[in-house]
Amino acid sequence: MKIALIAHDKKKKEMVELTKKFEQVLSRHELFATGTTGLRIQEATNLNIHRFKSGPLGGDQQIGARVSEGEMDMIIFLRDPLTAQPHEPDVTALIRLSDVYEIPLATNKSTAMLLFKELENLAKI
Fold this sequence. Notes:
Order of helices and strands: EHHEHEHEHEH
CATH superfamily: Methylglyoxal synthase-like domain
CATH architecture: 3-Layer(aba) Sandwich
Number of strands: 5
Strand order of the largest sheet: 3-2-1-4-5
Mean pLDDT: 94
Family: Belongs to the methylglyoxal synthase family.
InterPro entries: Methylgl_synth, Methylglyoxal_synth_AS, MGS-like_dom, MGS-like_dom_sf
CATH topology: Rossmann fold
Pfam families: MGS
Active site: 60 (proton donor/acceptor)
Function: Catalyzes the formation of methylglyoxal from dihydroxyacetone phosphate.
Number of domains: 1
Low-confidence stretches: none
């Protein structure tokens, strides 16, 4: 599967912890991330990640373009709902695209864990 990993600044630590916990299952998939999130994950794991631009510089839109072209299978987007984001329209557009193209999207750690656990279960079959 092609999986996008995105995290707002206050959620990057959570994303790193999550990817470390599920590193084995994630290593079987093609991973994409926005710039800083991808860098932080790469520094903490052995995962190979294609990095797009930072979210505010168009990374969210780059991932959205992949969704619209049928080139993304899952999105993990750990959002910070308590901090205003300068690129909020891009965030909203990405969420809308995931709905339009029926791409599984987790916007919090609990939902991301459920999706990753399902990937683990599928790998056992």
